């Protein structure tokens, strides 16, 4: 392109930006806190505080210690907190060193929307969505009671108005689907369970709204058929052209379609709320369909795992110990997690989380199509 053409269009752009920017600045939301509900993709230490913490090399890239996350570094929720200029979220369940002044995280690894079925209890967290709601229901008044003691207590708890100003975020549902597969339900049976899963989600969201929440940011579920967790269990499943197991991704898409419809209804039922549906499936799937675009390689292979074509075994996870040729060996990290998509077979690397976060926060994958910093009620 010649410069003569470029200059006027740049000029126009900068004029437009000058005229528009006061408007844009006015429209930006101020989120002083994040209240998160979810599962392992959004766990900042809830499971670690209550059961068995993730072991090294989890956390190696950023925190240089496991830090309660199932990743080599930051998860999407961390990138969100940083983008708002807020500290990382403390897990509600942690009794050590927590600071809830800018929000709380109720997510734990293995959490489901519906109560875990007894046959899958070993695989799942007891802190399913309704339990997280009960915890929040206690957190709100109790945090204010403590705040009113003044002094150092006040600095550890959110201001009262933060409860209506906060962004309420959700990343949950994947385990309802994968647990179904692991107790040997076929894909059709798992699909049949989805309307009830969504109904349970909706009723919890309404309860949270009734506690004063107004801005909601709701992730759909990712392409579970691309995860080593699923691929290694169902080795003979039919694959798409990128090697992901088709039928499992179809179930995820069916969940997402149901969730999106439920959110459309919620907007009618809860007129005071701003509810954003966030498609994480599409940007996550593009990591598998077009890894080179983002500088990634071996997208279907776990970086920190052991065995088989996907470097994953359900019997020994990242940081676990196995005997190889009679020697105890720790399941460690691949050489460069920064060029990998999947960290431990189920969760994404920090590098992948960053790519997905940048895409969803732009507004390109949200309904309504607004960026993260405008997802509030005005
Ligand atoms: C809690 O975090 C806030 C925000 O980072 C900070 O201002 C406050 O001093 C912290 N409280 C304590 C006791 O560290
Ligand atoms: C598989 O995991 C091991 C750790 O057990 C790691 O050393 C290796 O690099 C991983 N393989 C690939 C291809 O990433």
Structural features, described:
- By secondary structure, this protein is an alpha/beta fold.
- It has a single domain (29-294, 351-368), classed as Rossmann fold (3-Layer(aba) Sandwich), CATH 3.40.50.
- 40% of the residues lie in helices and 9% in strands.
- The protein is built from twelve helices and eight strands.
- It has a six-stranded mixed sheet. Strands 6-7 form a two-stranded antiparallel ribbon.
- β6 (321-324) and β7 (327-330) form a beta hairpin.
- α4 runs parallel beside α8, α7 packs antiparallel against α8 (187-210) and α8 runs parallel beside α10.
- One 2-acetamido-2-deoxy-beta-D-glucopyranose is lined by residues 298, 301, 303-306, 311, 331-332, 334.
- GO terms for molecular function: hydrolase activity, acting on ester bonds.
Short key terms for the protein model shown above:
disordered N terminus, 378 residues, 9% strand, Rossmann fold, two-stranded antiparallel ribbon, six-stranded mixed β-sheet, alpha/beta
Question: Mean pLDDT across all residues, rounded?
Answer: 93
Total of helices: 12
As a whole number of angstroms, the C-alpha radius of gyration is 21 Å
Beta-strand proportion: 5-15%
Architecture, CATH level 2?
3-Layer(aba) Sandwich
* Approximate shape: globular
Name of the CATH class: Alpha Beta
Tell me the structural class: alpha/beta
Stretches where pLDDT is under 50 for at least 5 consecutive residues are 1-25
Pfam families: Lipase_GDSL (PF00657)
Family: Belongs to the 'GDSL' lipolytic enzyme family.
Keywords: Glycoprotein, Hydrolase, Signal
Signal peptide: 1-25
């Amino acid at each position: 392109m010649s410069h003569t053409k470029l200059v006027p269009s740049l000029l126009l752009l900068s004029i437009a930006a000058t005229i528009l920017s006061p408007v844009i600045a006015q429209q930006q939301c101020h989120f002083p806190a994040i209240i998160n509900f979810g599962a392992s993709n959004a766990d900042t230490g809830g499971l670690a505080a209550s059961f068995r913490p993730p072991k090294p090399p989890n956390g190696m890239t950023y925190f240089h210690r496991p830090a309660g996350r199932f990743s080599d570094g930051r998860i999407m929720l961390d990138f969100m907190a940083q983008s708002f200029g807020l500290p990382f979220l403390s897990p509600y369940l942690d009794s050590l060193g927590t600071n809830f002044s800018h929000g709380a995280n109720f997510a734990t690894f293995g959490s489901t929307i519906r109560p875990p079925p007894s046959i899958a209890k070993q695989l799942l967290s007891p802190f399913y969505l309704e339990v997280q709601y009960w915890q929040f229901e206690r957190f709100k008044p109790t945090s204010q009671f403590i705040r009113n003691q003044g002094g150092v207590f006040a600095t550890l708890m959110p201001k009262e108005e933060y409860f209506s100003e906060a962004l309420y975020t959700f990343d949950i549902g994947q385990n309802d689907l994968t647990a179904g597969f692991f107790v040997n339900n076929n894909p059709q049976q798992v699909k049949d369970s989805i309307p009830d899963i969504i109904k349970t989600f909706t009723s919890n969201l309404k309860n949270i709204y009734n506690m004063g929440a107004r801005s909601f940011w709701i992730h759909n579920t990712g392409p579970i058929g691309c995860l080593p967790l699923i691929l290694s269990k169902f080795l003979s499943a039919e694959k798409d052209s990128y090697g992901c197991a088709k039928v499992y991704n179809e179930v995820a898409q069916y969940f997402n379609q149901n969730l999106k419809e439920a959110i459309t209804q919620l907007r009618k039922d809860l007129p005071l709320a701003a509810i954003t549906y966030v498609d994480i499936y599409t940007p996550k799937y593009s990591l598998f369909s077009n890894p080179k675009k983002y500088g990634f390689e071996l997208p279907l292979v776990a970086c920190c795992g052991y065995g088989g074509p996907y470097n994953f075994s359900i019997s020994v996870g990242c940081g676990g110990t196995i005997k190889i040729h009679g020697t105890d060996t720790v399941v460690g990290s691949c050489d460069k997690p920064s060029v990998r998509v999947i960290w431990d077979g189920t969760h994404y690397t920090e590098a992948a989380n960053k790519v997905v976060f940048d895409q969803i926060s732009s507004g390109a994958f949200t309904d309504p199509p607004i960026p993260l910093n405008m997802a509030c009620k005005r």
